[in-house]
Amino acid sequence: MYTLLVCYDIVGDDRRDEVSAVLSVHGAHVQLSTFECALRTKREVTAARAALKRIIDQDEDQVRIYQLGNAAMDSRVIFGRRRLEERADFYIV
Amino acid sequence: MYTLLVCYDIVGDDRRDEVSAVLSVHGAHVQLSTFECALRTKREVTAARAALKRIIDQDEDQVRIYQLGNAAMDSRVIFGRRRLEERADFYIV
Fold it and tell me: Which residues are recorded as binding Mg(2+) (chains A, B) (predicted)?
């Protein structure tokens, strides 16, 4: 399992919706510009990355992808009760 | 050194500016709602977390903090040439 944190600044609404659609297949839309994704195979990771790269405008937009290990996920801290969407395994402090 | 990735959805402009001010002391404002921070001590981490928790509105806002190890930082991928601010050690694909 590959846990990816994807953060993005996308200028165009259509492109942002497309990015969101690609990512929502794989995980939770945890903040307006952030997804926590769980992908099963390296092939899924490669395909998702290729799709994101194809969708964005290379000059206007930016996507950041971080592959998180268990330690990073275990260290995750969430302040505030605002919720957009969450994966099942999270905790609040 | 503690590398923290901080992502936030903050409704109020003033609170968002305050969060940004706290984080900009420690790192780069890499996207509109995302900072990559490098903190030197556990005490700095504790103080920064406390400040963020104090600033935000617990009902309206959300801050997510991920402590990233070297593997997560090495795995970081950035698509798109949009730049807000970057730390020195990053690479583009």
Answer: 9
